[in-house]
Amino acid sequence: MSEIKLAIALPCHEGHVDVRFMDSFAIMEKPFDWVYMRPTFPQNFPASLDDARNSLVMQAFEAECTHILMMDTDQQYPQDTIARLMSHNKPIVRARVHRRYPPFDPILLRRHENGLCVHIPDEEWMKGGLVEVDATGVCACGLFDMQVFENIPYPWFETVRKELNDKEHTIIGEDVRFCEKAQEAGYQIFVDCDLEVSHLATFGITQKFYNLYKAARGAETRTV
């Protein structure tokens, strides 16, 4: 692999982070050449998450980085997160992250024959390894080759409204919309299902907690 210059990009724009995130970030193994980045905005600019992510990509280009790792700050990371993601040598790859609210599943989506996205079966991602998906919360903990952004038109991240019919619409978040753009540009999206990032609520949402939640829901259903 050619020489790596990594932008470690934290899309925080609310002024505070969880100490559990900071502890895991401080001890995380990092490559020799890396740059720390936060979003930058003009004064009084109405910052959104879309704006934050686009700002980080632009900074990475300005710093002549080869890769960018986006890490949400409401999560706790394994020490070898960067090394694991880098080892796959993929243009787009992310760690497995669970929702921090019910049903606590990892958002791993695959396009259905009718064009809608559905969650992949638990049995598939629980086998571990790399799993290809059509859409996911790719920026929660996602590593990107910067060439990806050269081949996708700006804005790279945007939340859009999609009309379903004359009366209904849906909102497509910036992560899922980015996945659509990436696939249109010919890129595949992979998730390392063995690399588990703890999504912080009042406690970490992990596969173990998810399994307990499913068991509890099953018991509740059987008693109704």
Give me a quick take on this structure:
The protein is an alpha+beta fold. The protein has one domain: Spore Coat Polysaccharide Biosynthesis Protein SpsA, Chain A, CATH 3.90.550.
Write the layout of secondary structure elements.
Elements: E1 6-9, H1 19-27, E2 34-37, H2 49-62, E3 67-71, E4 75-76, H3 81-87, E5 92-97, E6 108-111, E7 117-119, H4 122-125, E8 130-133, E9 135-136, E10 141-145, H5 147-150, E11 160-163, E12 169-172, H6 174-184, E13 189-200, E14 204-205, H7 207-223
Parallel strand pairs: 1-2, 1-3, 5-13
Antiparallel strand pairs: 3-10, 4-13, 5-10, 6-7, 6-9, 8-13, 11-12, 13-14
* Overall helicity: 25-40%
Which consecutive residue ranges, at least 5 long each, have pLDDT under 50?
Answer: none
Q: Structural class per helix/strand content?
A: alpha+beta
Q: What's the N-to-C terminus distance?
A: 57 Å
Count of extended strands:
14
**What is the CATH topology classification name?**
Spore Coat Polysaccharide Biosynthesis Protein SpsA, Chain A
**Large-scale geometry:** globular
CATH architecture: Alpha-Beta Complex
Number of domains: 1
Radius of gyration: 18 Å
Mean pLDDT across all residues, rounded? 89
Q: Which percent range describes the beta-strand content?
A: 25-35%
